[in-house]
């Protein structure tokens, strides 16, 4: 039996965590790891204690902001970073595994938090119909090691939720 590497393990975990999302548009999961240990996880959705979009607004989801994004959603990578900081975990020098490349606002947070590496599963630009992944470009410009995951997670062999 071959041993999976940590990139495969953490990306598979991020894909599984994405399945926890209540968003009706897109399920996104994130894992924050440091020194081969998980320090936090997150998935996209409204702040804890507010509502679940798929339950409260099953047909349309929550209202949209001026750019067409969910007005209440916190992105998966934001949730992972916020939870780590809330629990006094040191995120400096950590690696973020996320199922969708970071948007530009998330990229700014990632950079400011001192995360050194980001591995993403799918392109945010392709999902949103944008010409480029602005968040990826931003992180590269400022020296963050960021790249698309090139492995084949075990979960890919199963039928993944179409929203992931």
Quick structural gist:
By secondary structure, this protein is an alpha/beta fold. Helix content is 31%, strand content 18%.
Structure, explained:
There is one protein chain. By secondary structure, this protein is of the alpha/beta class. It is 31% helix and 18% strand. A five-stranded mixed β-sheet has the order 2-1-3-4-5, sandwiched between helices.
First and last CA, distance: 28 Å
Strand order across the largest sheet:
2-1-3-4-5
Q: Please outline the major beta sheet.
A: 5 strands, mixed
Would you count the extended β strands for me? 5
Rg measurement, Å: 15 Å
The helix/strand series, from N terminus to C terminus, equals HEEHHEHEHHE
Count helical runs: 6
Descriptive terms for the model:
31% helix; 164 residues; five-stranded mixed beta sheet; alpha/beta; single chain; 18% strand
How do the helices and strands line up, and which of them pair or pack?
Layout lengths: L5 H13 L10 E6 L2 E7 L9 H4 L19 H11 L8 E6 L3 H10 L3 E6 L1 H5 L5 H8 L3 E4 L16
Parallel strand pairs: 3-4, 4-5
Antiparallel strand pairs: 1-2, 1-3
Helix pairs in contact: 4-6
């Amino acid at each position: 039996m071959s041993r999976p590497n940590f990139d495969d393990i953490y990306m598979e975990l991020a894909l599984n965590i994405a399945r926890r999302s209540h968003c009706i548009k897109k399920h996104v999961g994130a894992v924050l790891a440091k020194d081969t240990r998980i320090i936090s996880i997150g998935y996209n959705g409204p702040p804890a204690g507010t509502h679940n979009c798929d339950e409260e607004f099953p047909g349309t989801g929550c209202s949209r902001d001026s750019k067409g994004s969910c007005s209440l959603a916190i992105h998966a990578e934001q949730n992972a970073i916020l939870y780590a900081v809330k629990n006094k975990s040191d995120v400096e020098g950590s690696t973020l595994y996320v199922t969708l490349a970071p948007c530009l606002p998330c990229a700014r947070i990632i950079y400011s938090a001192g995360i050194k590496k980001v591995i993403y599963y799918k392109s945010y630009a392709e999902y949103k119909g944008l010409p480029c992944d602005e968040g990826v470009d931003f992180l590269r410009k400022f020296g963050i090691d960021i790249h698309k995951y090139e492995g084949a997670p075990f979960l890919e062999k199963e039928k993944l939720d179409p929203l992931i």
